[in-house]
Write a structure and sequence with these properties.
By secondary structure, the protein is mainly alpha-helical. It is 52% helix and 8% strand. Helix 2 packs across helix 12, helix 3 runs parallel beside helix 13 and helix 10 packs across helix 12. The relative contact order is 0.15.
């Protein structure tokens, strides 16, 4: 079976967008291959973050994944920082990626645009190097990602091609996979922006109460066309709500349009809220049970041991290829 890899940063409150685009999807993907899932706590350090928040949020993230149905027997779940080979490999691979490439990365340009040069850390600039190491260290062929991460996958593929041309077939070529529905859930207050942990009004957080979730959906921005129709350009707000409903119910956009033909936005929003609450109520209950059980620490500890075996094998293979390891 193909090896599958995914990761997520513990840098903010998890949103419904994270659940639909990553957490819920990976629970399905784990049935299709040998799955590795890491919490990217080292990446979280590229911008200032409270240490206590980082520790607690990393564990919460693991609990949310387990609550979604990830099976520790099928999916290796671990903290990035618990597998030192990630950092060691990044130190080597940084010599095969170039400053021009890194400076063109969209996420770096977006995050550094509002910062003074003297405030931009090397970690932020070199973020794609560590991410490339994360990707190739498990010999994973399939990398489920959101649309905004595809550029990082392409950079990793360029790295693999460049490295293998020089040293022979050392690294496995990865391929990014977009989630078919729900890969990009937008803010409810501004549907032109991604739901991204920083908008209390437009983001639905997984730790929101069901009442708050419902209220946010009922307050979502729509438009003046007064019809439920999928058109991202003309009706971004309605299209976003349709995406949420489709991802949670399995209904196609065409089915949703037909179901709400001639009906008002209020009725449609209530249906979306019902779908969200029906999914979130049992999910939140499972999360609370897992947190109380103490399972998370055991899963992360075991996952780090299993991940280290694979990661260290890749590291040694790379060290040998470049002349650093002779055994």
């Amino acid at each position: 079976m193909d090896r599958i890899l995914s990761g997520i940063k513990p840098t903010g409150q998890l949103t419904l967008g994270n659940y639909i685009g990553a957490i819920k999807n990976f629970a399905k993907v784990q049935q299709e291959g040998e799955a590795y899932l890491f919490i990217a706590d080292l990446h979280a350090l590229t911008l200032p973050i409270d240490p206590e928040f980082l520790r607690n949020n990393s564990r919460d993230l693991a609990a949310y994944y387990l609550a979604a149905g990830l099976d520790p027997k099928k999916t290796t779940i671990f903290l990035q920082s618990d597998v030192p080979a990630h950092s060691e490999l990044a130190i080597i691979l940084q010599n095969y990626l170039y400053m021009g490439e890194l400076s063109r990365m969209t996420q770096f340009k977006d995050k550094s645009a509002k910062m003074k040069d003297e405030a931009i850390g090397l970690g932020l600039f070199a973020y794609p190097v560590l991410m490339a190491a994360d990707i190739v260290i498990y010999d994973a062929k399939r990398i489920p990602v959101g649309e905004d991460q595809l550029q990082h996958i392409e950079l990793a593929r360029d790295l693999v091609h460049r490295f293998n041309n020089r040293y022979g077939e050392t690294l496995v070529m990865p391929k990014g996979e977009l989630v078919k529905v729900g890969s990009r859930i937008m803010s409810l207050s501004d549907p032109t922006k991604k739901m991204s942990k920083s908008d209390p009004k437009g983001d639905i957080y997984l730790n929101d109460s069901l009442e708050v979730m419902r209220k946010k959906i009922m307050s979502a921005v729509t438009d003046m066309e007064a019809r439920v129709h999928y058109d991202v350009e003309k009706q971004p707000g309605i299209s976003n709500l349709m995406t949420i409903m489709s991802a949670l119910t399995g209904k196609s956009f065409e089915q949703i349009e037909k179901e709400f033909e001639g009906k008002g936005y209020g009725e449609f929003k209530r249906a979306v809220a019902d779908a969200v609450c029906a999914e979130m109520e049992p999910y939140k209950a499972r999360y609370e049970e897992i947190v109380k059980s103490g399972l998370v620490d055991d899963v992360l500890k075991d996952g780090a041991k299993r991940a280290s075996v694979v990661a260290e094998a890749t590291l040694k293979r790379v060290q040998k290829a470049v002349g650093l390891y002779n055994k």
